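User: Predict the complex.
Assistant: Input components as received:
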Amino acid sequence: MKAARGQGKTIGVVPTMGALHEGHAELIRRARAGTDYVVVTVFVNPIQFDRKEDLDKYPRDLATDVALSESLGTDAVFAPPVEEMYPDELMTSVDVTGITTRLEGEYRPGHFKGVATVVAKLLNIVQADRAYFGEKDAQQLAVIQKMVTDLNLPSEIVPVETVRESDGLALSSRNRLLTPDQRSVAPLVYKALSAARDALRSGKTPVEARTEALKVLAGTQDMTVQYLEIADAANMMPVDRMTGPVRVAAAVWLGKVRLIDNVLVS
Ligand code: PAF
């Protein structure tokens, strides 16, 4: 990386937790097209998991991740062990407030502090000019954008649109943990979000749109809706009327697998 920087090359980073899929591939392609030297980081960050069980079962497959990254023209894969990222007791962390209180922040205490802290570390390590993040994790994207602005970090954050299966299911490393039955009902999440989006576009209120979306999911076998909200796209706070762009965002449990997704309505 130092050599690339010395030659005046721009550096792009794609931070990931591995188990790479087509969604990550799209981030890498965008980085490849937008910068001269592409670094993919693969690090399952323990401090962003609120449940140890989730950390333990997070899929890991470094050899496949390296092969996929290389096939897409990645210049370097940075996959540090936990002891390298956190050699000593961590006494400094990045806590983005406000936009982290609702949605994911409400149900995953400490999650965004862990994300912001590790992303700040990775941006510092890689010294990236640009960092690429998927819109599937819309709140995470908003948190990282705010952190970079507030702390004057010198990396540009580039949002990349969610990649979906042909049935609408947003790609996620967690999809591979679904049973065939769970996989067959998982696309209902996007269907529900789309129903809310259509309702908003047709002039219905956020409350009405939310009801439409919940109807799509009602009674689905093995599915529990943790939240389904219509939130201001900038501050991620639920709204009861449309005054600007919103995200319809949801988190559902399918058995023991938690899926999140969102759509933007502007
Ligand atoms: O989105 C992810 O995969 C992770 O939250 C990230 C941004 C790599 C930080 O660990």
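The chain is about 40% helix and 20% strand.
Let me know if you want any component modeled separately.
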